[in-house]
């Protein structure tokens, strides 16, 4: 994917070979704290993981010191958005399949201790993964991406560090509770008895947000910790460590995560509860994003500064919406996931590539609403009400005839956003309230005819027709004013004349409307105008 462009400038300083090991990677000059190999080991399958050993670390030769400056950014035609930005002068060394990097301010003893701790973990697990671990004193949050762990040295200690390493190995979207529970089990912690459980408790998901102070209370997070450790101990005792680690890997893949949810449900059922677990996967957000939310259809990056100006103005949500309450976050992304699935099924677009990235950015973004970029296959938006509109662009663009005709692309997205988008309907209903737009003559006529408030889900196609007439918007050219309303109205006319499914099949497959009728395009648009004018001939226009 091209959403994130990686610019890495690496200059290698090759040192003369000498007898000692490099600073921070050796065990000769620096004596780090030795791992306590006599610590009690939980009851685990001896056939799946070797017992801890006190063997020395692999030898690192002296030319492994690397000075690296790196900045990873996304370049956008409007602005520059960074998934995370790290400008640094790191000292790194390589041990087999692993690369360890440290800021210069991290001392030699601390480096050696952290490397020894990590290598000891992999010996216990019997694995030799490819992994990159970069630790800083300045980084605020931990971020995991593509087999790399970026974290703040002082905040990643003990089981927290082990959990981050496990997620780096088995996938950044892996179930956070499964990783932390297993890390605590490896540290020798004993599971506690679980008290009363409730079937409707959302935090049984045990995902990343369930443990974060911004999204859950201290009591909720503490219960999550207990459940995570108890689940890990129970599963490992029954199935062994290798099976547990495979379950952790599967928990981070939307197409395979059902296995992890099923294992959690079995654990809860044994304790007398049957909660509904969320299909949404979450990951740490890194420097610029609060968190990442992934489903089968898209991966969403929520900007830490994001708030929805439309929803706030309408009094529907607060500035902290999606930043502090897990129930709201879960409801939002489950809703969006359901709507994306409905769009897929309705437009009959299979198979689907799970490569779409949606950047939900702050309200100060230099654009209004959102946009889809075909060349990068990603979406930028600052209002949830346009999410489905842009998603329809993302899944229909490759089906439309090239070069894409504006009225077809915008007509499909604009017409069907009201059919599938809860957020669009919420905000549209607010703006259609008579107290908000009291001067819209076409809207007043709607109230007169229907005798009820505007219902976007039911009345959207009718509104597009009314507005096309009201503004005399019958031109479908590239830069047409009111292109959105006109395009949706023209589609509505075609649907009435030839059948909705038939028109969609032609647009998304055959591309040629002349296979539906002997009329030319100009004749079709003239007929649309004539019919629409006849429908609303007694209505006022904007200039009246």
Task: Compose a concise summary of this entry.
The protein contains 16 helices and 14 strands.
Features:
alpha/beta; eight-stranded mixed beta sheet
Uncertain segments: 1-54, 60-67
Note the run of SSEs as H and E. Answer: EEEEEHEEEHHHHHEEEHHEEEHHHHHHHH
The percent of residues in helical segments reads 25-40%
Q: Any idea what the radius of gyration is? A: 28 Å
Give me the number of helical elements. 16
Number of strands: 14
Quaternary state, please? single chain
3D shape: elongated
Mean model confidence by pLDDT: 81
User: How much strand content do the residues show?
Assistant: 5-15%
Q: Please give the alpha-carbon distance between the first and last residues.
A: 51 Å
Pairing-aware structural class of the strands and helices?
Answer: alpha/beta
How many strands, which pairing sense, and closed or not: the largest β-sheet?
Answer: 8 strands, mixed
Describe the protein.
- This protein has 544 residues and is α/β, with parallel strands linked by helices.
- Among the domains are: 5-269, no CATH class; 437-544, no CATH class.
- The protein has 16 helices and 14 strands.
- It has helices at residues 108-125, 158-170, 176-186, 218-239, 241-251, 258-269, 309-313, 326-347, 387-396, 406-420, 422-432, 441-450, 456-470, 483-498, 500-510, 521-535; strands at residues 5-12, 66-75, 80-81, 90-95, 98-103, 131-136, 143-145, 148-152, 281-284, 289-294, 299-303, 357-360, 370-373, 378-381.
- The strands form 2 sheets. Strands 1, 2, 3, 4, 5, 6, 7 and 8 form an 8-stranded mixed β-sheet that branches. A 6-stranded mixed β-sheet has the order 9-10-11-12-14-13, covered by helices on one side.
- Strand 2 and strand 3 (80-81) form a beta hairpin.
- Helix 3 (176-186) packs across helix 4 (218-239), helix 5 (241-251) packs across helix 6 (258-269) and helix 14 crosses helix 15.
- The longest helix is centred in the middle third of the chain and has 22 residues, at 218-239.
- The chain is elongated.
- Residues 1-54 and 60-67 have low confidence and may be disordered.
